[in-house]
Amino acid sequence: MSIAFITGATQGIGRATALALGHAGYTLGLCARTESTIEELVNELSREGIEAAGAAADVGHPDQAQRAVDDLTRALGPADVLVNNAGILIAKPFLDLTLDDWDATMATNVRSLYLMTRAVVPAMRRRRSGTIVNVASLAGRNGFAGGTAYTASKHAVLGFSRSLMLELRKEDIRVITILPGSVATGMLRDQTMLKSDPKKILRPDDVAATILHAIQLPERAMVSELDIRPTNP
Q1: Buried-exposed string 64-85: b where 16+ CB fall within 10 A, e elsewhere
Q2: Which of 150, 174, 182, 185 is catalytic?
């Protein structure tokens, strides 16, 4: 039974990924900031016959990220798959963007990748097996007005992932970057600067299905980067 740890697991892409992987037979380690929402999701999955454990943590904080991995590992075993999905979007004109906005974006979108990956890689190296999925964005390739912090963070995710992939592939550990376009989640709906038709953009299930497909490729095969766009925007 393969074990997958997922950050930002209780809403949006993270929740959809948890459901997709759980229904595909994965045991799930779920991480998010709010304990009550984790418990709700764990209970929902349990009712569907999916084994899951949760850990409440701010994965941008080093002590909390390590504690989450330790707790999930004790409950389930070491991760075969890590999905680094936790993320925030603060879309503002540059001069309205505060230093706190900038720091929060970098902590959640970039620092958490470093911390969570650092926590799971040693066990993957010992087994010479594992897959790390980093959820970036097409904003990691392109800019948009109001996206100085978010776009910078997603460019960093892409650079981090490309370098890590080249380093870890020698030890049979795959690093896969998923780059979705606009996805109909609460994170996007809350942005006054960004307008999109929720009927035409991607949905969380679309991204989750892509993640599942990528990690289920034969172990000798790796898709290092996947851009996901709506078919007919």
Answers
A1: bbbebbebbbeebebbbbbbbb
A2: 150
- Report whether 85 contacts 180 (CB < 8 A): no
HEC assignment per residue over the chain:
CCEEEEECCCCHHHHHHHHHHHHCCCEEEEEECCHHHHHHHHHHHHHCCCCEEEEECCCCCHHHHHHHHHHHHHHHCCCCEEEECCCCCCCCCHHHCCHHHHHHHHHHHHHHHHHHHHHHHHHHHHHCCEEEEEECCHHHCCCCCCCHHHHHHHHHHHHHHHHHHHHHHHHCEEEEEEEECCECCHHHHCCCCCCCCCCCCECHHHHHHHHHHHHCCCCCCCCCEEEECCCCC
Tokens of 116: 């969570």
Indicate the length of the chain as a whole number: 233
CA 152 to centroid of chain Cα atoms: 17
The answer to whether the predicted template modeling score (pTM) of the entire model surpasses 0.90 is yes
Amino acid (one-letter) located at 173: I
How would residue 15 be classed by pLDDT, with cut points 50, 70 and 90? very high
**Amino acid at position 229, single letter:** R
Residue 141 has pLDDT above 90, yes or no: yes
Whether the CB-CB separation of 129 and 171 falls below 8 Å is answered with no
Strand pairing class (225-228; 27-32): unpaired
CA distance 24 to 9: 16
Distance (Å, whole) CA 127 – CA 219: 13
Catalytic residue list contains 150: yes
